[in-house]
Amino acid sequence: MKKNYTYLSYLEGWLSIIVNILLFGLKYWAGIVTGSIAIIADAWHTLTDSISSIIVLIGVKVSSKPADEKHPFGHGRAELIASLIIGVLLAIVAFSFIQQSIEKLKSREAVVYGTLAVVVMIISIVLKEALAQYAIWAGKKTGSSVLKADAWHHRSDAISSVIILVGIFLGKYFWWIDGVLGIIVALLIFYATYEIFRDSINPMLGKTPDESLLKEVNKICQASGATQKEAHHFHVHEYGDHTELTFHIYLSKDISLEEAHRIASKIEDSIREKLNIEATIHMEPLENNYDI
Predict the structure, then answer these.
(1) Which of 154, 207, 227, 273 has its CA 20 to 30 A from that of 111?
(2) What is the Cα–Cα distance from 90 to 150, expressed in whole angstroms?
C-alpha cells in the first residue's frame, strides 16, 4: 500500500508540473496578445499549480519517512502541512485576482479576445480537468489529503478557464466582463481554499471518530471475549496513512492480569488486521452484578 501511495503521488506531482508549465506559457502568451487581465491572472494561477505540485512531492517524500526516535508515529502529518501551504497559495492567488479585477473595472477597459484565447482556454479546460480527475482518483485510492488538495487546485483552474471561455463570447457585448470574470474566479478559488483548510486542519486538531468505526471496534471487542458493555472514551489520532486509536473497555474485576492482557492484545491485533489501525486499550473493572 505504501509503495503504491508513493508511486501514484510522485506520478501526479510530475505530470502536474510538466502540464502546468506548458499551460502557463500558452495562457500568458494569449493574455499578452489580447490584453486580458483575466487570462494573465489565470496563467499565474496555473503556474502556482506547478509550485503546489512541488510541495506535493516534498510532502510525500517527508511523510513516507519511517518513524524515528523524535517522531514515533511517523511523518504522515507532513501531508497536512503541505496541504495547508497549497491552501495559502490559493488564497494569495485569489486575492491577487480581486485586486487586478477591481483595477480593470475602475479603468473601464474593454478586451477583444479573438480565436487564440478561445483555443488556449479549451486546451486548458481539457488538460486541467484531466489532471483533477487523476488526482481525485489517486487521492481516493491512497487516502492522501495532499492529493485531494492538489485535485482542488487543478479543478479551480479548470473552472476559471470555463468562466473565462464563457466571458470571451460575451465580451463583445459587455465592456466590464473581464473584470467581473476575475472576481468570480477569485471567489471560486477562495471556496477551494476553505475546503482544503477544513480537510487539513480537522485531523490536526482532532475530530470525533466516525460512527461506523465505533461500531466496528465494538463488534471486534465483543467477538474477542470482552464484556458486552460497549467500549468508550475513544480518541483517534491521524498521521497520514497511519492511525492511532485509544479507548477503554470493561473486563470482569475477578479475571487475572494475564487474562486481561490476553483479551486486550487480541482486540488490538484484530483492529490492526481488519481496520489497519494501531490501538491502545485501557481496561476498567466491571462489577460482577453488571447485567451482560
Answers:
(1) 154
(2) 10
